[in-house]
Write a structure and sequence with these properties.
Blueprint: E1 3-8, H1 14-26, E2 36-41, H2 53-60, H3 77-80, E3 83-86, H4 89-98, H5 102-105, E4 108-110, H6 131-154
Parallel strand pairs: 1-2, 1-3, 3-4
Helix pairs in contact: 1-6, 2-6
Length: about 160
């Protein structure tokens, strides 16, 4: 079964929200019950912390509970995951710098490369913004995860 890793900067807003949304969607799809879904960040500032309270509250209103703990990206993740999905171009670029072989680079994509509405757009970092920013992030991630789910199901 496939494995998915979402990557952002600190692993407390965008990538854990993506992890939670996809996990929530997969729970309703029996054919994907063995799908491995995780998230991480490029920085180590928040290791072990729950996602930001504001993203947890916004997700909870949509029926998605975010419980993952922040972890930092590790080079061995290239061997452990089939899809490594970056939230923006800065993260995408850094992941490409970490990837040493073409097989690893081929696993790296923007999260929104699977989106219908937000195709190939960056997911903005809502950390320093207002509540509306968290809602936009969740909208973008839901659309992207829905597209990813459809892509995975087609490959089965």
């Amino acid at each position: 079964m496939a494995s998915i890793l979402f990557v952002c900067v600190g692993n407390i807003c965008r990538s854990p929200a993506a992890q939670g949304i996809l996990t929530h969607m997969v729970a309703k799809e029996p054919r994907l019950q063995d799908l491995r879904i995780e998230s991480c960040g490029l920085g180590d500032w928040h290791i072990g912390q729950l996602p930001d309270e504001r993203i947890r509250e916004a997700a909870k209103l949509r029926g998605v509970v975010l419980t993952s703990r922040a972890q930092i990206f590790q080079p061995h993740f290239f061997e452990q995951f089939d899809y490594i999905l970056a939230v923006d171009h800065k993260v995408l670029h850094q992941l490409h710098r970490y990837a040493n072989i073409p097989e690893h680079k081929a696993k790296i994509h923007l999260v929104t490369s699977f989106s219908v509405t937000y195709k190939d757009e960056e997911i903005p970092d809502p950390y320093y913004g207002e509540e509306a920013g968290f809602e936009l992030v969740l909208d973008m991630l839901e659309d992207s995860c829905r597209g990813l789910l459809e892509d995975l199901l087609k490959k089965m």
